[in-house]
Specification:
This protein is an alpha/beta fold. It has two domains: 71-270, Rossmann fold; 273-358, 2-Layer Sandwich (Alpha-Beta Plaits). It has eleven helices and 14 strands. The strands form three sheets. Strands 6-7-8-3-9-10 form a six-stranded mixed beta sheet, sandwiched between helices. Helix 7 links the parallel strand 7 (202-206) and strand 8 (234-238). The chain is globular and about 70 Å long. The chain starts with 12 loop residues before the first strand and ends in a 6-residue tail after the last helix.
Length: 364
């Protein structure tokens, strides 16, 4: 997918967030469920002590988002990347009008964040993680059309857009089948199609690649992205597949520990690691880091492969220099005869995610 020439930084903001913080309050554990009625003074005392200990140890509050600023331009395809616990889900729910922030201000489609009901009317939230269940008594076509009418479309308009959505997700031939007769990937595409029947200013796709094989994912999701972009709708993608988001998005925000660690076009973000290379080693030996790694290694991991031959896969992000390979080999596997395979490649957004996260190890 080609990144448009105009700058979305200067485009009118369909999502504007300033200093957004979201805290989930802690909870105090109670006596409920403690079996104080068990016979015998010893059992009674033990359960009572356990109950008091549970009562005293309250669950601490959790800050999912910390002072986040974000600008998403009108008509932009914007990607959200980050590991588990980075704040993606909370941010998605705030943009979709499902949550209010604890602190901060902003607008979604020109509506203040506090007016969640009005925001929900302007955002099509498509979650393929299962919380928006299908009606199993209806066919795929009926599920999509019913959803459109439920959201206010006329019968005729819902029918027209249902046909368009079915073709976009490549389900036209299966439109008369019930969910029970569809594969898991096909059911995911039905859920994806439901979000396409509404002409909302913002479409939010939460992990749209889940359950889709690579060929179907590329064909269907790129068709969806191009179609929504041609309509002038803003598309926000939140996915764990960094490679796909890198190809699809105009700009990407990388989240870690509730903060935006980097934002820009994929090309701009990759400039942060342009001086590095990903080195893969396959060695016929186990690996134990007995000394500190050489300075050319920025981050690394090693995984032993099961089997009688005892292979270990070592992967690292290393500085690009003439001495780098020799320094790494000498540290990982001094016995060069045990090296089975060596390969270099350019880093991806997945590598940028890991590197940016390690730059803020104690930022809590």
């Amino acid at each position: 997918m080609v990144i448009p020439a105009r700058s979305f930084r200067e485009a009118p903001g369909v999502v504007e967030l300033q200093g957004i913080t979201k805290e989930y309050p802690g909870r105090a554990l109670s006596f409920r469920g403690t079996k104080l009625e068990l016979k015998g003074p010893l059992l009674w005392a033990r359960n009572l002590t356990h109950a008091f200990r549970m009562k005293a140890e309250d669950t601490p509050s959790v800050t999912a988002i910390r002072g986040m600023d974000l600008h998403i331009g009108q008509g932009e395809i914007f990607g959200l990347l980050g590991p588990n616990g980075s704040g993606k889900t909370t941010l998605i729910k705030i943009i979709a009008g499902l949550l209010k922030p604890t602190h901060g201000e902003g607008t979604v489609a020109g509506i203040p964040l506090g007016e969640t009901r009005a925001i929900r009317q302007r955002v099509s939230y498509v979650s393929t993680t299962g919380w928006m269940g299908l009606e199993w008594a209806l066919t795929a076509e009926e599920n999509i059309r019913f959803y459109g009418q439920l959201c206010g479309l006329s019968r005729k308009l819902a029918a027209v857009r249902t046909d368009e959505a079915l073709r976009m997700v490549d389900l036209w031939d299966e439109r008369k089948k019930h969910p029970s007769a569809l594969s898991n990937g096909m059911r995911q595409r039905v859920i994806l199609a439901r979000g396409l029947v509404l002409a909302t200013p913002i479409v939010l796709l939460d992990e749209p690649s889940v359950g889709l094989d690579p060929v179907t994912r590329d064909r269907v999701l790129e068709t969806v992205c191009h179609t929504l972009a041609s309509r002038g709708q803003t598309l926000i993608l939140a996915d764990h597949d960094a490679e796909w988001v890198e190809r699809a998005a105009d700009r990407v925000a990388i989240l870690d520990r509730g903060r935006v660690r980097g934002v820009g076009t994929p090309r701009e973000l990759l400039q942060n690691v342009s001086h590095l290379r990903v080195l893969d080693l396959l060695i016929q030996a186990s690996f134990t880091a007995r000394t500190a790694p050489p300075s050319v290694i920025r981050r690394w991991e090693a995984n032993e492969r099961p089997g009688p031959q005892g292979f270990t896969h070592w992967r690292g992000l290393v500085e690009e220099s003439p001495e780098a390979l020799a320094m790494v080999l000498n540290w990982v596997c001094p016995n060069i005869r045990q090296v089975v395979e060596v390969s270099f490649r350019a880093p991806s957004l997945q590598d940028v995610m890991g590197l940016l996260g390690e730059e803020y190890p104690h930022d809590e």
